[in-house]
Amino acid sequence: MGVLQVQLLLVPFLTSPLGSAQYLMQDAALMNYMDRRFLSLEKRLEKCNQDILDYVNEFRDFSKMVLSRLAGLNSYKAEVKSEVQNLLTRIEQAQRDIDYFGSVTDSNPCIEVHEDLVKQQLLEEAKEKKKLKLMLNASCDHMLAGIKSLKIVKKTGDKHGSWMKDPGKKHTKIYLLNGSVNNVILEFTNIMTFMENNQTLSARRVTLPFPWEGTGHVIYQGFLFYHRYGSLNEIIKFNIQSRKVADQMLLPGAGRIPAYQLPPHTKIDLAIDEQGLWAIHAEPETGGNIVVTKINHITMVVEHTWDTPCSSKDTEAAFIACNTLYVVYNSPSGGTSRIRCVYDVLDAVNTYEIPALHFPKRQGSHSIIHYNPKEKQLFAWGDGSQIIYKLHTQQK
Questions:
Q1: Which of 7, 204, 345, 387 could cross-link to 380 by cystine, CB 3.0-4.6 Å?
Q2: φ, ψ for residue 135, nearest 5 deg
Q3: Which residues of 107-120 are buried (b: 16+ CB within 10 A; e: fewer)?
Q4: Stretch 368-379: mean pLDDT, rounded?
Q5: Is residue 91 part of a domain?
Q6: Chain centroid to CA 27: how far?
Q7: Which whole-number Å values give the CA distances from 149 to 204, 359, 376, 377, 391, in the listed order?
Q8: What is the Cα–Cα distance from 105 to 162, expressed in whole angstroms?
Q9: Which regions of the chain does DSSP assign to beta strands (E)?
Q10: Cβ-based neighbour number of residue 94 at 10 Å
Q11: Domain named Olfactomedin-like: which ranges (predicted)?
Q12: CA nearest neighbour of 338 among 367, 320, 315
């Protein structure tokens, strides 16, 4: 028993140095590991710093190269610009030399060719004028010299509208078309019936399949010709007796701007004279000047077009009589209507602005003015009144 106790006491004494040595070895290994790790990190940081320095130096070298190249390009650009400018100067000098040599060279052959071209052009113009005279009947040789008097036939009260007779028929019927947009024609047996107070009861009503636009419509040989509402430049030919559309056409260039500045509701103004159907309108390409077009009322095709020098500014109406356009001007606030520009399509060279021909004894404005070649009178609509103007004419 005593021996056993002694052995138990000796065991801790013998084993304690061995445990301490083991712990010391573990600490040394940990320190060695940490030292190696720090050494590795330091090397990596040093390499990173070196790489950054290398990148900075490389970027600086590249920047210097780029700046050097750019400076070279600017210098090259200046040289090229100088060479181009020198080339342009030489070309201009050469052009001046060519012009000089051309001016001192004998130009008789060129003059002869030019004269031949002029002769050919004059010949073609003469042929065209002869053709137009045949088409338009040159026997129509009178022109307007003055407006003698007026007669107010009736006052319907509507501001805009149109009224007329059919100059292509022998009957005495009167046609009334109220408003700038409508689709009903009122037909009266004669002017006495038209002047009666209750016009709707005594009139025959004719309903159109399409409404009209503006007040520039005309009736000729039993047909109503009018600008179709909602269309740019469609003209309808309507048979009043059968109440059917007989034909239609598009008028090139028309309908984009008003024919007259003061009543802008009319884009295409149709007219009748001794030669038949015409169209009056304005186009942006002519600077707003009035354009005249001759239309074949049977085939509904354009026969000829004239660009006139008559401005549409401050215009309220126009009419055609005996191949000649008469343009009526007024003030925007309404005043004395006057004809100031005349254009003869067969003698366009002598077209001129005339001393104003004033409309007599009234102040106001016109919605429309149309010439009746059969009675040699003007049928006008002015401030709600239906007016007839008698004309004074003379030989052209």
A1: 387
A2: -70, -40
A3: eeeeeeeeeeeeee
A4: 95
A5: no
A6: 98
A7: 31, 8, 13, 10, 8
A8: 66
A9: 142-155, 161-164, 174-178, 181-188, 204-213, 218-220, 223-227, 234-239, 244-250, 269-273, 276-282, 289-296, 301-311, 315-321, 324-329, 338-344, 352-358, 366-372, 377-382, 385-395
A10: 10
A11: 139-395
A12: 315
Residue 237 has a CB neighbour count (10 Å cut-off) of: 19
Residue 222: inside a domain: yes
Is 74 domain-assigned? no
Alpha carbon distance 331, 355 (integer Å): 17
The conformational region for residue 2 under phi > 0 = left, psi -120 to 50 = alpha, else beta, is alpha
* pLDDT tier at 106, thresholds 50, 70, 90: very low
User: Is-above-0.70 flag for pTM?
Assistant: no
Query: In DSSP terms, which residues pair with 296 in a beta bridge?
Result: 301
CA–CA separation, 7 vs 297, rounded Å? 149
Considering its fold, how many domains does the chain have in total? 1
184 and 206 in contact (C-beta within 8 Å)?
A: yes
pLDDT band at 38 (very low <50, low <70, confident <90, very high): confident
Task: State how far the Cα of 5 lies from the Cα of 205, in Å rounded to an integer.
Answer: 149
Q: What CATH number does the domain containing 293 carry?
A: 2.120.10
**Whole-number Å distance between alpha carbons of 65 and 69:** 6
Mean pLDDT of 206-223: 97
Note whether residue 330 is domain-resident.
yes
Distance from C-alpha of 189 to C-alpha of 41, rounded to nearest angstrom: 119
DSSP-derived 3-state class of residue 99:
helix
pLDDT at residue 20 is higher than 50: yes
